[in-house]
Structures are given as C-alpha cells and as structure tokens.
Amino acid sequence: MKFTDGYWLIREGYNVQNPADIRDITHTSDSMTVFAATKIIATKGDTLNGTLLKADFSSPMPDVIRVKLFHHKGKVNKGPAFELFPSDTDVQISVDEETAVLTSGQLTVQVNRKQGWNIDFNYAGKRITGSGWRAPAYIQDPDKKAYYREQLDLGVGEYIYGLGERFTPFVKNGQVVEIWNEDGGTSSEQSYKNIPFYLSSKGYGVFVNHPEKVSYEIASENVSRVQFSVEGEYLEYFIIGGATPKDVLDNYTKLTGKPALPPAWTFGLWLTTSFTTDYDEATVNHFVDGMAERDLPLSVFHFDCFWMKEYQWCDFEWDKDMFPDPEGMLRRLKDKGLKICAWINPYIAEKSYLFDEGMENGYLVKTPDGSVWQWDLWQAGMGLVDFTNPDAVKWYKSKLEVLIDQGVDCFKTDFGERIPTNVVYFDGSDPVKMHNYYTFLYNKAVFEVLEDKLGKGEAALFARSATVGGQQFPVHWGGDCSATYESMAETVRGGLSLGLSGFGFWSHDISGFENTAPPDIYKRWVQFGLLSSHSRLHGSTSYRVPWLFDEEAVDVVRKFTKLKCSIMPYLYNSAVESTERGLPMMRAMVLEYPQDPTCFTLDTQYMLGDSILVAPIFNKEGDVQYYLPEGKWTNYLTGEVLEGNRWYSENHGYMTLPMMIKPNTLLAVGKEDSRPDYDYADGVSLHLFELGDGASAQADIVNTLAEQELSVTASRSGNVIEVKATGAGKPWTLVLRGIGEVASVDQGMAASGEHGAVITPAAGASSVTITLK
C-alpha cells in the first residue's frame, strides 16, 4: 500500500509518524527495546502530547533476529498466528552511549543512538540491509484506520525473489505485491500461495509474521527500499541470515516448518479424468489400460470433481449412477499397481446431506447474526467447514477416513482461497487473518488423517492454496494455467518463486488446464513436466492421454516418464535433502549459483536438484537459449559436452532438450524405468561426469524409507580416480561418461558401455582405483 506522493510528500489525508529521536533503550538477557519519539525532543515539555514508538529486538534461533515495531500494545490481538518452531539461542547484547547491539549467531542488529533512526543488520561483519530515515512509520489514513510500515534498504544491483507462487516476473523489483490468497489463475498478479517471505540476492531473507494481508512495494514506492505494511498497531518481521541463500532457506524453514517427505510413488506419472469430462469406470479403464498397452508407466490415477454427484460437492460419496461399485473399482485399479487420488475441497453444498449435519452441529462458518455463511459461487448454497472447531475437524476427517478405507491413497485438496472476511469463527479468530490462514488448517487436517490411516511417510496431498507453514504438507501444484507457451513460461516462474519461499515439492498441469493444447505444446510441456518434482497430466474440458494428441506424443510421454523413473535414486536423495534443509527440488539458478551474476535473473531454466540443469523449450520451432555456469557440462540425453560461462542457442526435436549435468557430478541412475518406487541401491549405476583434477564427487543412495544404503565418493588426482564406497551391500557399477577406455582398474574390472567405460567393483570391494589412459 502506498502512503506517499512521490518521495517528499505524504498522500492527502494521511498522518505519517516516523521514529526520529531515540529516548531510551532497555534490555534483558535476551532482548532489547528501543523507545523513539516521533519528533526531536528539545525540552521536557516536548515529551507531552506526543507519540512514543517502540521496537523490540530478540532472536528465536541462531542467525535470525525478530523485530517488533509497535505503537499501542494494548489492542486485543486475536488469532490465528503462524506456528513457529524457535530453538535455544545464545544472544549477546551490548548497550553503550553510542550504539546498542544484539547478536545471534553471525547476525547482528546495531542501533545507532546518536543518528535519529538508523538501524543496521550485519551478517558475518558485513552490512546486508537496514532501516533508516523515514523508513518505519505509524500511519493513519483519512478514516483514522491505522497501519504500520517498514522500509528496508535495497542495495545497488540487489534483487528480490519469492513471496510465494507468483506468476509475474521472477525478479520482484519494481512490483507491488499483495499477500492475499485469490483464485486468480496463473496469468495475473494474484496468487493461490501467498508467502510473506522474500529472499535477497545479497544472501538474506525477510519474513513478515502476519497471516493477514501484507502489502509490499518492492523498489516501487521508494526505489531504493523494500516496503511492507500491515493494518494495525504493530508490525513484526524477522531478518534471516545465512552464509548462502540455501542456508537462509534452511533457517527460514527451521522457523516455519520443514517439508514432509512425499512417498516415492508420488514422483511417478499421475493421470486424471480431467475436470468437466464425462467418465465412468469403463472410461477410467480405457485410459489405464491404454497407458499399459503403450508401455507408458503410470503411478497414480486421479478422480477429479465429478466422482461425486453434481450440486453435492463435497459429500464424499461416489456418484452411484457412474460408479455403482466404488470399492470394487478401486480394488481393481490398485491390482494394476496404481495409487488412487480423489478431488476434494472444504466447501459443503446445500444439496449435500452433510450440509444439514454441519449446520445442526455448528461445523460451518457463520455470519455475525449466527446464520450459516453461504453463497452460490462454485457450489449452490455452499457453506464453509470451520476448521477452528475441533469437532468440525474430526467430522471432516471421518468422511475422509471412509474414502481411505475404500482404497483412496491421497487427496487433491483444491480451493481454500475464496474465504470470506464478514464471518465468525468458532474459536473467535480474526476473519481477516483467517482469509490466508484457512488453507493451513484445511490442508493440515487432510494431511493428518492420511498419516493417521496410512502411516507417517505415506501421506501426500495435491494442494492448490497455501500460506506460511503449508510447505509441511506437500505436494502443491500451480493452479489453472492455459494451453499456451506463455502460460508454460509463467508456470515456470511460479514454481521458481514458490521454491524460494520454502516449498520443496511442486507440480503443474502438463499442457495447461484451460483449453486443449496443440500437439507441439503438449509434447514440450511433457518434457518440462516430467523433469519437475511431481508430474501430472490434467486438464479442464478434455482428456489428457497422449494418443489423443498424436502418436509422437505417446513416444515423448514414454521416453520422459521412463527417464524420470530411471533417475529416481538421484531424485529421491534430492527430495530427502529438501526435507532436511527446506530446499526446493526445482531450483532457481540463483540458488545454486549465487556468485554468478548472470544467474540472478534467469527464469526460463532451472536446476532439478543440485546437479541437473533443465531448459524447457517454449516454441513450436524447438529453439532454445540457455546459460551454463562455469565448467564442462554434459547433455544427459545426447552426450554433448559444452564449456560453461556462456550462452547457447540450440534446436531440439521432441525427444531431447537441454538436460545438462554439471561437472564433478556422480549421478545415481537406477536399473528400473517402469515405476518410481523400487530398490534404488540394487544395481544402481553411478555416472561420473567431467571430474576435474583435484576434484571429488559424491552420490548418496537412500531407500524409499529415506534410509541411506550406499554412499560413493570419487576423487581424481592426475590420471588416477579413487572410488570409495560405504554401505555397499548390493551390486553397483560406475560409468565414466565420455571416457571409452581406461588403462587399468584395481579391485574391479572395466568394460565398454553405451556412455563410456563401465567399472564393476570386485566382490566385497569398498574401494576401486582407476588409472586413465
């Protein structure tokens, strides 16, 4: 929200008060409070009839500093509040006549007492940002509505990322961003997943701890600052430090929650009925059998909305006219090796028998006069489940338990954004704060029932909406995109932004949700979709099975589905890292290469894990431009080796694209390509790419329970490569990519292979020495 008229003037009718004169600083063993008048105090009389603003500084965990700015602290503060996970922190505080300093880990805040209002945030002794003259402010609009604002310095060449799943330009500089969940598709400034956290290219993050609307002006109202504001008497935010952007995301997700690890089967190909299409069991079997007949590995079948009767969403009952034997149908599908997903939402239509149950028991959100809140947008007469009522949560979960007992393995938790604010919640929560927060309670309830019924490690959602903490309940998908190359590109931007907001696992509707893609877009999107964390064929008014597009589309789906299954040992280890460090599997280039300025603005390519660069193709002609950081990179699909630190322009058919492996990589490739969940360590092939002299590479292989089974390290000195393995209880091989022959192998044997020399360790050997020619 903008409060100024240009740089010098205030908008008419607004009263803006800034801290101008620090009057006192108090502190305890772990926090300090700064008291600042909004004018220079020259005499004791100046202290009367004026405003005293306060700033609390503390630390919830190492390398994180909490800042709370407030005017009047006596206001009632209704929930909800984001769930945070603080840890023990050793805080140092020093206060003298010149400065007051609070230190947490390597992060410090320094208050300069003799300079009006001048706050510096430093990491490892280097200033990263600060709050200066006229930056924070307590503001009243012409109607006396109160706001609190902060402005943090933005350096020359500094870029801002994140703020949730945003489809606008990847770099947020110059943008106005409203943290307010909306069902706006992927082609607007609105977002399903609004996260009040941004990441800076200078290597720090800022998290605004408010579930209600947060308004950002990023190098816009004041072009040298990032401004954020909320309505009310206080503003709380956290400065999050780290040695690298990855460390910042690690710290942010330590504070707000780490992503759970999705089951291995979720990484395979998902196929859905699509939204408004007609389907019954025969239709479903036609699709499932058609995939099998064409050797197209399928892992999950999803039933979209119309598995329930129209006008009755959600009653969680199968449409008996279309599915007279749902238990038998699900059993038959599962006998084919499939997992089952069912669409749900948190709305109860009036025609649903559950509406009366919910109304009579107080399980639905109410209006201020005590009526059930209803409208006709989406489902006629629908009400909204009140997840602040524990009994309503149990009631909602009980309906899902029936479906799980029938054979449903996961739920697509659609919607959760269209949440009214003129309502009353069971626990008295502030309805404005609940607008964004509602999705957290909704998805948490569904995730919990899956864990309770299926076991920890087996729960998975396909969620559209999210707020802070929602990353704990994966997977999320990008919402309603269109069948165009432009929408494919905006989808990539949305995924990259969400990944820099603490979310590890993300998907999208392959070939676009709205309309039906021409064959070329379908095939290009399949490449991108199967080189994403999760992969789903889904649409609105038409089916998405590949043979309805053309026969080459069948071949493309087969090739890239099998490719993804084959690299699951690498991908699943990357997924485990996502749960441990809060890193996205699909990573913006700046996250892996924060020292390479060329990577700062790249948004049409990404890293899948830390070793695979993917550059999707966004045109019918097959032309692509992409950038490679320093080193020798190898195209996994063609074997071509390219020198990095430069741009490339290429043309690709539908069976290839730039899928580049960074140098000094030991990539784990499994022996299975027909399913994503298998024994990754048994027969794994470790492909070694461009190992430089003096360099080393490591691959860790975990099983589907996330337990490490094998770790292999390759180190090179001159023409000798030393390979060491721990936990090698199952057979494995080493492939020297691009090296056809070797001079000798100690504790193993060499043979020629398709991609280079194949080294097979001797039985029981934990180390192998390879001498190159």
List the keywords.
773 residues, 31% strand, 49 strands, Immunoglobulin-like, 6-stranded antiparallel β-sheet, single chain, TIM Barrel
Mind explaining what this structure looks like?
This protein has 773 residues and is α+β, with helices and mostly antiparallel strands. The protein folds into four domains: 4-73 and 86-202 and 204-240, Sandwich (Immunoglobulin-like); 264-346 and 389-424 and 431-585, Glycosidases (TIM Barrel, Alpha-Beta Barrel); 587-661, Golgi alpha-mannosidase II (Immunoglobulin-like), CATH 2.60.40; 679-772, Immunoglobulin-like (Sandwich). It contains eleven helices and 49 strands. It has an eight-stranded antiparallel sheet. Helix 5 (390-406) packs parallel to helix 6 and helix 8 runs parallel beside helix 9 (551-566). Residues 582-666 form the Glycosyl hydrolase family 31 C-terminal domain.
CATH homologous superfamily designation of the largest domain: Glycosidases
**Widest sheet: strand ordering:** 4-5-6-7-21-18-17-15
**Contiguous runs where pLDDT drops below 50 for at least 5 residues:** none
Profile the largest sheet. Answer: 8 strands, antiparallel
Mean pLDDT: 97
Named CATH architecture of the largest domain: Alpha-Beta Barrel
- Cα(first) to Cα(last) distance is 66 Å
CATH top level label of the largest domain:
Alpha Beta
Into which percentage range does the β-strand content fall? 25-35%
The number of helical runs is 11
What is the helix content? 10-25%
Shape: globular
Enter the CATH topology name of the largest domain: TIM Barrel
Tally of distinct domains: 4
How many extended strands? Answer: 49
Radius of gyration from CA coordinates: 28 Å
Helices and strands: which structural class?
alpha+beta
GO biological process, one term: carbohydrate metabolic process
Keywords: Glycosidase, Hydrolase
Domain Glycoside hydrolase family 31 TIM barrel: 259-573
GO molecular function, one term: carbohydrate binding
